[in-house]
Amino acid sequence: MREIRQRRAWTMARQRATTTDEIVEAAARVFETKGYRASTIDDICTEAGVSRPTIYKYIDSKPWLLDQMVALVTEELGEQLDSILGGPLSAREKLQAVVRLHISAATRKRVYYATVWAEQTELTPESLANFRAWSHTVTQGFAELLADYAETEGLRTTTLDATVLANLTLTMLTSLFRWYDPLGQTSPEDLSAQILTMLSGPLPGLDDGVATALSRDRGRAMRLDEPGPAAVKPDTRSRHP
């Protein structure tokens, strides 16, 4: 019995949050499950494995926690997008990289995406204004990249509204947290290839190289799944007359 108690105590201590980032992550799990308004600081304490006096050594308030989640989503993603857009890649390569980046960010930080996009009305006025400004900048940058690709490839821009396509695509990418499981049958690489193939409708050639690689990988996976030759069972019957 003493050994069982010790193991339980060790497990609780191992799971106890010890940094601000871990507290914020615990709060995001609570907000996703119960909703922001219904969640209490006590709920977050329970999820983080800390006491109420201890938690205030790491955080200021519940609204502050939500603001931190916005920062965790926007700051890193914004820097990475700027790096891609300002880099030496071609327009096609940039679009492919941006799609892969959004998939990676939405899956790695799924719990933050789930809270930020679902609880925008709960943001402080300043945080909401900053988030909307950031979203507008991201959408505008993506729309300009789409238009740049169309111009580079000599596509007819009269039938392409880059802003509409940018909004539709980014809405899809930022809502992956609602349904996509990166550990399921569709890998992030497969998902990226399928999205680029879909976008190649209005933007022909966008999936060049990607679809070929995807087909090759699928063919390799199918071959690996095929059963090998049946093993020959040894004849154990007696050879004596």
In short:
Helix content is 67%, strand content 0%. It has helices at residues 2-15, 20-34, 41-48, 52-55, 62-85, 91-108, 110-118, 125-152, 162-174, 188-199, 210-225. Mean pLDDT is 84; it is low at 1-14, 220-224 and 228-241.
Q: Which regions have little confidence, pLDDT < 50, spanning 5+ residues?
A: 1-14, 220-224, 228-241
Global Rg: 25 Å
What percentage of residues falls in helices of 4 or more residues?
Answer: 55-70%
Helix/strand-derived category reads mainly alpha
Q: Would you tell me the overall average pLDDT?
A: 84
First-residue to last-residue Cα separation? 64 Å
Give the total of beta strands: 0
Strand content of the residues, in percent?
under 5%
User: Main β-sheet: number of strands, strand sense, barrel status?
Assistant: none
The sequence of SSEs as H and E is HHHHHHHHHHH
Number of helices: 11
Oligomer: single chain
**What spatial form do the alpha-carbon principal axes imply?**
elongated
Keyword list:
single chain; 241 residues; mainly alpha; 67% helix
Commentary on this structure:
The protein has helices spanning 2-15, 20-34, 41-48, 52-55, 62-85, 91-108, 110-118, 125-152, 162-174, 188-199, 210-225. The chain is mainly α. Helix 2 (20-34) crosses helix 7 and helix 5 packs parallel to helix 8 (125-152). The chain is elongated. 24% of the residues are buried.
